[in-house]
Automatic annotation (TrEMBL):
Subcellular location per the Swiss-Prot or TrEMBL entry: Membrane
Keywords: G-protein coupled receptor, Glycoprotein, Membrane, Receptor, Transducer, Transmembrane, Transmembrane helix
Main localization of the protein described in the UniProt heading: membrane
Bilayer topology term: Multi-pass membrane protein
The protein's name: LPAR6 protein
Organism: Sitta europaea
Listed Gene3D superfamilies: Rhodopsin 7-helix transmembrane proteins
Positions of transmembrane segments: 12-40, 52-77, 97-120, 132-151, 171-196
Entry's Gene Ontology molecular function annotations: G protein-coupled receptor activity
All copies of domain G-protein coupled receptors family 1 profile, residue ranges: 32-140
A GO cellular component annotation in the UniProt record: plasma membrane
Entry-linked InterPro entries: GPCR_Rhodpsn_7TM
Amino acid sequence: MKDLRRYLALKYIQYLVLSSSNAVITLLGLLASAYTMILLQSAKVSSKSTTVLISSLAQADILVFLSLLSDVVLGSFGAGGPGAASALARVLLTANAHASCVLLSCVALEAYLITFLPAESRPLRTVSNARLLCRALWALLAAECALFLLHELLGGPSRRPAGLLLRLPGAAAALLGSLSYGLGVLLRIGNVYVYYKIFFSMSPR
């Protein structure tokens, strides 16, 4: 559907083209995700592996809404101090960006398989496999959020014997951040290559 293609184009711009978050694009992304979640409930949209991935992509923007809500609620009531609100918002936004980048890359990879290996990849491109992939991704995101939150809560220098143990989440979070940055660069390069190949394969000779 044209609406879903427009939605994917907006998300590619938001997460794989722009180098930093933009308030206008973020708002448009939230509105587009809400519209897409409603659209996917329609009987006119067939249940395919691509629609499962797009549905998870739209649901990932719930994390953006929760980050805004945490800033308002925790900031207003002072629960845990303003630092706790900003830390939670940061973690949720990071998880949203990571989920969106991976899901967009999964959609790109599926488009590549459909274009160049339609018959060979059909056993892989099933609704059940797409749902399993999304569940695994959300489980990894939950673990990532827990690690980053633990780092925020236990962060800070300590000279006590337990200091080394308390610094472990910080070291793990730093390593994960470095890996995420490198993976993000690779995903951007991979997406450009995939759509470059698809575009020129469909262009008139």
